[in-house]
Specification:
Elements (H helix, E strand, L loop, with lengths): L20 H12 L5 H28 L10 H20 L15 H19 L7 H34 L5 E6 L3 H10 L6 E7 L27 H8 L6 E4 L6 H11 L5 E5 L14 E5 L2 E7 L7 H34 L5 E7 L5 E7 L23 H9 L6 H6 L4 E3 L6 H10 L12 E3 L14 H16 L3 H17 L5
Parallel strand pairs: 1-2, 1-3, 3-4, 9-10
Antiparallel strand pairs: 4-6, 5-6, 7-8
Length: 509
Amino acid sequence: MPLSTTTHETALPAPGPATTLDGMEQSFRASNSVLRSRQVAADIVGLFDVIAVIIGGLIPSHFYALHGPGVIASGVPALQWSLIVAIIAYGGMRHFNLYDTTSMHDFPVAPGRLLLCLAIALLAVLGIGLPFTVAGPHMWIWYGSWLSAAFTLALGNRIITNRILARMTAAGAFDTRVAVYGAGEIASKLNSYLRDPALGIRFAGVFDDRTVSRSPDAPNQKTQSTDNLSNAGNMDKLLDIGRTGAIDQIVIALPPSAGHRSNDIIRRFEQLPVSIHVCTHIASELVDANARQSLSKLGPIGLLDVKRKPLSDWQPLLKSAEDYLLGTLLLIGAAPLMALTALAIKLDSRGPVLFRQRRRGLNRQVFEVFKFRTMNVMQDDETITQAVRDDPRTTRVGRFLRRTSIDELPQLFNVLKGEMSLVGPRPHALAHDEHYSRLLHTYANRHQVKPGLTGWAQVNGLRGETRTPDMMEQRVAFDLEYIRNWSAWFDLRILARTILIVIRNKNAY
């Protein structure tokens, strides 16, 4: 969600000097459950507007149908005309800013603009359909009744939703949570601006690693930054809170003299599923040259938009629907094969059917991944040896399962549990995760989304053993490209290519 300067009549509580870190984090966790997308809310209002226009056309059509067929369009033709009018009216309402998300506390009702859009849509359809319609008073009465009914229903919808959205806004449901890293003069200006209750922005506090007193006489004492700003914690604290999903945006507000630190700071924050902005006095060459950057403004401070929050607005809902719907269908279809596989494993070697291993998911949360057991060992400690071609640890049945990727099918349960997605960065064992996190500064950025059963890196040939850091770096690059460019169509492409790769058995052992 972009930074905005919305009007907001309800005061928003913000952490003051007396706020404790534990209390702030509990507040963040509690408020996170009521976070809503402004765009999603506006789209839902639009959906009800479309339904109102359709019903407005069908009501008079139904009553006229009672007088006998052929008087006016009824049934399917009436539904088709109603849908066309609804689409045209919706386009007009978007054009006249009737879905403006900058003022959620006072969502537009605008009866005049609403009536104008409906009239234009009906006139457009009237011009198209008049040559093919039986002329007569019934037709004009129908159009007049349609306009009246549609306007009444749509206006009622907007009056009701206006009150609902105002109530949600007062509860902070649409607030953008903004944290500031850096406790200097720039942070002071941002603090004064962000605490304005008219913005619809929740100020999450100032974080900095350099505001703690280094005096040996007061090792536990915190100093106050400019204008008595309270330091809410250091970078590690902000990273921890950011992983809870309680922060939407981070503004890096460091003085020009600290420009040499900015690159490292940006890299650390990139692993969080948040938007990142830096003050424009920081040289643009300090940020990723491949990222698409734009400029914005937050009060008196100019900002360079370094990174957009992944999976925003409707995207999380679309991806969850995709995972649960396709995951359920795949699990039902694969159930007989999975039952036969379990029987083959029990007959082939001693040990459990399933292999469980701890891995990291969204925001580095640890979970247990399920796989069919393919080896005689069950490693899940600090030293884990990757599988290699002709690995002597692999069982007879295991070699076939790994070649065909059937061993991965139990991860459909992880998908339905919400721990994984069908498509995403592949999760690695904890030992490998820690190892590559130290070697590659971008590795942790993979944890911005759920890990996947398959991924963009895998369908581009990066499967199997990673013998060198360069091979893992290539995987990470593909994973980050996937996160930046996610779409439902992208996921379907990857799933289709995965099927082809599994058939070819390339790099699977």
